[in-house]
Amino acid sequence: MKHSKRAILSLASIAALAFVTGGVAQAQSRHAPRRAPAIQRIAATVQPLGWRQGARRDVPRGVCQPVYRNGYWKTVVDRVWCEGRYRIEHIPARYATRFDECGRPYQVLISPACERRIWVPGYWDNVQRRVWISTGHHRH
Description:
- The chain folds into 2 domains: about 1-45; about 70-135, no CATH class.
- The protein is about 20% helix and about 35% strand.
- The protein has helices at about 1-20, 40-45; strands at about 70-80, 85-90, 95-100, 105-110, 115-120, 125-135.
- Helix 1 packs across helix 2.
- About 0% of the residues are buried.
């Protein structure tokens, strides 16, 4: 009985809002899409009776599920020494265009492709990691 009274009251409030807003809305222009009547737009926003939006159906209203956290995550930054190393750099071959007696172009190798080793000195670097910090509060 309680829910049927609520349903009648909510339908009455929808009807009252529709009366205040003017009932059916007119299309704005000939090419604009027709809008739904005001009563349908208002009814679409009414939530189901007795439940909040997104509420779990298996837990009665007003009863909260306890959340037990016995710690938290913390981001720790460590300074780490990175050793020096050699970096290998590739140097492509160099070619030049020459012309023969008839004016035809041809390619000439100026220097072949090679690799150069470059020393990169050591340096300090910051490394981030996540650590679980236990608070020691355990409830069973």
